[in-house]
Design goal:
81% of the residues lie in helices and 0% in strands. It has 274 residues and is an all-alpha fold.
């Protein structure tokens, strides 16, 4: 090989190992950047962020903490009953949501749906459930079925379907075709293929996703009470509105304990199953 050819080959090798060069962004990228910067500047301006407000916030936070200690334990039994109700709302809503998510995920997935149009429609429904915030669902169900735990349970069901059906469907679509094709070659029905291949292969992932849904539901159930959908949120909202900060702190401590226990149990189950 001649000397110029060797240099050319060396330069080509160097170029292959060089990081990608920075390219001039397109006009669309520049426009999106300008729009984002404009929104950030507008948001910071409308937030009216000043040093006085920030310092005042620190002082008020200190007053809140000072008034909240020691936490009020006189209504612990009532608060604990509300905590149990919150846990029940989250648990029932997640259970129903997970059970409904599996058939919906099978309809969504390209490799298990009876028809592509059904897949597109169910994916659109799941996306809608996931996109609308749970507080808005809670307001809708409070109007529909009235105040109380039922509105909270229905909200958790919809939120869980939006969360679980998506991840169940993605796991089903990632599965290799080998096991299902082997069952199909033996003359197995569609139901038999799903029961003998799809569900057993995806089971660890389904369990892991469902446990994350439980943790998510516990946090959501606490907030749902603020709009009248049952649970401990009602007590927390009342305590804060009446400026009973010591009682509010007791509620926050109990919520923290429940959330930590659920997270630890969920983590232990995931380690055992996955």
């Amino acid at each position: 090989m001649s000397e110029p050819a060797k240099r050319l080959d060396k330069n080509q090798n160097l170029n292959q190992h060089m990081p990608p060069r920075w390219k001039n962004p397109s006009i669309l990228t520049w426009l999106l950047s300008v729009v984002c910067i404009a929104f950030i500047i507008s948001g910071l301006s409308s937030a009216n962020i000043t040093v006085d407000r920030l310092l005042g916030g620190v002082v008020n936070m200190g007053k809140f903490i000072g008034n909240a200690f020691p936490p009020d334990t006189t209504r612990t039994s009532t608060i604990f009953a509300r905590i149990v109700e919150t846990f029940e709302i989250a648990l029932i809503g997640t259970l129903v949501g997970v059970l409904l998510s599996l058939p919906i995920a099978l309809l969504c997935s390209r490799n298990t749906t009876p028809h592509p149009i059904i897949s597109v429609c169910t994916k659109g429904i799941v996306s809608t459930m996931r996109t609308i915030p749970d507080l808005i669902w809670a307001l809708i169900f409070v109007i529909s079925v009235g105040l109380g735990p039922l509105a909270g349970i229905l909200t958790i069901v919809v939120d869980t379907i939006g969360f679980c059906a998506r991840f169940f469907s993605e796991r089903i679509e990632e599965m290799e075709k080998g096991p299902s094709q082997a069952l199909e070659s033996t003359g197995a029905t569609r139901f038999g293929i799903i029961a003998g291949s799809t569900i057993p292969i995806g089971f660890p992932s389904f369990v892991g996703t469902s446990l994350y849904a439980v943790e998510k539901a516990i946090r959501s159930a606490v907030i749902l009470g603020l709009v009248g959908a049952g649970g401990i949120g009602v007590e927390l909202s009342t305590a804060m509105s009446l400026r009973r900060f010591d009682e509010a702190l007791m509620i926050i401590i109990l919520i923290l304990i429940v959330v930590l226990i659920v997270e630890q149990v969920s983590s232990a189950i995931r380690k055992k199953v996955i």
